[in-house]
Amino acid sequence: MALLKSNKVILCLGNISPSLGVLSTRNSSWWGGVQMGPPDPILGVTEAFKRDTNPKKMNLGVGAYRDDQGKPFVLSCVRKAEAIIAAKQLDKEYLAIGGLGDFTKACAQLALGADNEVLKSGRNITVQTISGTGSLRIGANFLARFHGGPRDVYLPKPSWGNHTPIFRDAGMQLKAYRYYDPATCGFDFKGALDDISKIPEQSVILLHACAHNPTGVDPKPEQWKEISALVKKRNLLPFFDMAYQGFASGDIDRDAWAVRYFIEQGHNILLSQSFAKNMGLYGERVGGFTIVCTDAEEAKRVESQLKILIRPIYSNPPMNGARIASTILSTPDLRSLWLEEVHGMANRIIKMREQLVAGLKKEGSSHNWQHVIDQIGMFCFTGLKPEQVERLTKEFSVYMTKDGRISMAGISSGNVGYLAQGIHAVTK
Amino acid sequence: MSIFSDVPQAPPVAVFKLTADFREDSHPQKVNLGVGAYRTDDCQPWVLPVVKKVERLIVEDSSLNHEYLPILGLPEFRSASSKVALGEDSPAIKDNRVGGVQALGGTGALRIGAEFLRRWYNGVNNTATPVYVSAPTWENHNAVFADAGFKDIRPYHYWDAANRGLDLAGLLDDLEKAPEHSIFVLHACAHNPTGTDPNQEQWKKIAEVMKRRNLFVFFDSAYQGFASGSLEKDAWAIRYFVSEGFELLVAQSFSKNFGLYNERVGNLTVVAKDNDNLTRILSQMEKIVRTTWSNPPSQGARIVSKTLNSPELFDEWKSNVKTMADRVLLMRDQLKSKLQALGTPGTWDHITQQIGMFSFTGLNPKQVEFMIKEKHVYLMASGRINMCGITTKNIDYVAQSIHETVTSIQ
Q1: CA dist list (Å): A373 to A67, A185, A411
Q2: Which of A7, A381, A425, B255 would you call most buried, defined as having the most Cβ atoms within 10 angstroms of its Cβ?
Q3: Size of interface A-B (CB pairs under 8 A)
């Protein structure tokens, strides 16, 4: 992964230590040995896009939803919730370390289902986190400190670029299991099972709950069942990353199916949730981290340790986004409105997939683009090679990550034709 | 068998446990002098009028959305924050060698700074660099640096219990003896928990030794404006060190001076030798932020940024801050007078000599226990009280309680 390489570069170059004890603060700097960090591969795409003056340019880099006019979309349920909150004139007192209670409760219910046995028995601990990244990081730190098993976290190949440095910075080590099959642009089920069957016991296995990032390729329910059985057989610790609940199929329960199935099967999972995409609360940093424990007593012990971990990072989480999310989830008509709007976002994405494939057919492409429709969620692994991506960027001002990933949200009915033209041009 | 069977129950974070205990107490005269948040004379939290105004502007602005901020945060927020710390006319800012990293509160700023230092200061990944924190200090300092990877965190002399003031000689001695390149965490003003700050002459001495011995300066600035009521006065030490040529870090919090506690607004100001160094430093800060929280929360930064960047709102803010600082000063004055009037044994000058939200009363653990259990006045085991918890309505009871405690418990 690009980020993996860049970290290695930093470490290598950084071994040229500045000479110590000879520096005088008047004439030289403490920081002479600090290397220039490479730009973030995902966010770097947006930077490059911004600089481009081509009126037809398209940003298919970062995964933030856009409406059919290509504009950021603030959900109505969010605006309504904000108005309700503003009217309440609340104070700004510190939240508890674990966050807003109303939020963490609603967050866990959303993921697990309101009548889940886990919630009833109080054997989960759910804390509010700084969106999905913060959640993964807390989880990673917790594992590094308390997990008695191997240091290895197994990621699907490929995975979100930031997974690797997050776990690494927390002190864990990264390994991979096969996941994406470039030959089919689909799920390498056989390869995944094969690799998972060889993972040493008690290792951590990271699973994307739905709308796999970056490939958009999700296992089917039958496949999830086999994965669950195998994970149980190997005695692995499942860590679910659910950043797109509702956003994948349009149905929040359907998108949480794998998470709930695993729990039903007796796996005591770790779970990261993000509300960045499904509520459009990106910059408010709303997320949750859950550990399903054996019982309520264990949950209390685990909670106390999570607090000890969180306190020296940021003390307690930000209120605004959590307040909005919790208001939406617990106010019936806002919740229904939200479900409609999430459904709407997912549908627009699905429509764009269909239109892109239709467009490519129209251009006369002889390739099989079925995977664009079969994949799910915000991203599509087009199958484009780096050279083709480069051409697409240079000649058509279409910006995407080098791995051929496009954010479907960046496509609109107004530019899907142009995109089809470009992709056809570089692949024919 | 659970993989977590062996996870031990961790002790609760003391300051929050104190508030929890206070909440459960049903005594009609109970007083909470624990956690550091401002209270009005009605003992209520106070949302600053300027904050209310700006929040309304934000809600009404339909052009605003909830998109991701850049990794380092809202640019207008970062520059305005650093300006507040270093001054309008800061030569360092003019030299383009100052940058900011928006962070989650002061804690977040400290943590990002600590992570950066561990990776890049005094070698690469040198976890052995000693980190010095004052004795006593904010109880979270230790964990921030330890969790950032530093293995050697040491106290430096600070509080002179016998004289209830600054142990300057001890402090300077520690500076002389510290290994070169050691990191020192300095409280910019309103030292937490003692409320005792070095005066200008003392700061100059501290700076002289630190420069000579090549020690690294990391300022924790959580109370700018809140301490004396003047932004400039409270930033004097920071600005002095910058003018003396130090490359340094400043962890700024807007929790107290903006009353934005739960929106987690902070800024790590980086003062580098030149723009080239600054650029490289910030690029590495980005890497650290990306794996911690990716990008910071929007709401609080917008409020602060709008306020600091508008001359009228900025003035209104300064006056709100002065309101808070003045109430604290008034309570200090009155508490001391009442204790003196009661003839409470001991000297109580330290109450008005100390500055900021907190006062180190000098009460010992047994006396603290008595205060909590018998008088239902809640304070930290160290004897630290939050002056903001005192109001014209409860000050007599508080003074009485201290008097009773000191006369009956030794």
Answers
A1: 19, 11, 14
A2: B255
A3: 256
The two most distant CA atoms of chain A are separated, in Å, by 69
What's residue B1's pLDDT? 60
> What residues of A are in contact with residue B255 (Cβ under 8 Å)?
94
Both tokens of B380, joined, read: 């930290």
- Say whether A36 and B280 touch across the interface (CB within 8 A): yes
> Which strands form B183-187's sheet, in the order they lie side by side?
B98-103, B266-271, B248-253, B216-221, B183-187, B131-135, B153-157
Q: Are B133 and B326 in contact, with CB atoms under 8 Å apart?
A: no
Residue B56 has pLDDT above 80, yes or no: yes
Give the residue from B394, B51, B85 showing the smallest Cα distance to B235: B85
Mutation to test the B interface, candidates A3, A12, A27, A30, most B Cβ within 10 Å: A30
Residue, of A313 and A24, whose pLDDT is higher: A313
- Residue keyed to tokens 């400043």: B250
Chain B residue with CA closest to A133: the answer is B293
Asked if A133 reaches chain B (Cβ–Cβ under 8 Å), the answer is yes
Do B247 and A30 lie within an 8 Å CB cutoff?
yes
Is A169 an 8 Å CB contact of chain B?
yes
Distance CA A104, CA A92 (A): 18
pTM higher than 0.90 for the full model?
A: yes
| Short-list B197, B201, B170, CA closest to B186 | B197
- Residue A15 clears pLDDT 50, i.e. is over it: no
Q: From residue A56, how far is each of A365, A412, B201 by CA, in Å?
A: 22, 12, 63
* H or E, element range at B131: strand B131-135
- A2 pLDDT tier (thresholds 50, 70, 90): very low
Q: Which residue, among A320, A341, A378, would best test binding to B if mutated, counting the most B CBs under 10 Å from its CB?
A: A320
Catalytic residue among B83, B234, B236, B256: B256
Question: Is B326 annotated as catalytic?
Answer: no
Task: Band the pLDDT of A41: cuts 50, 70, 90.
Answer: confident
ipTM greater than 0.90: yes
pLDDT digits (tens, 9 = 90+) for A109-152: 999 999 999 999 999 999 999 999 999 999 999 999 999 999 99
Show residues of chain B in contact with A25, CB under 8 Å. 211, 214, 245-247
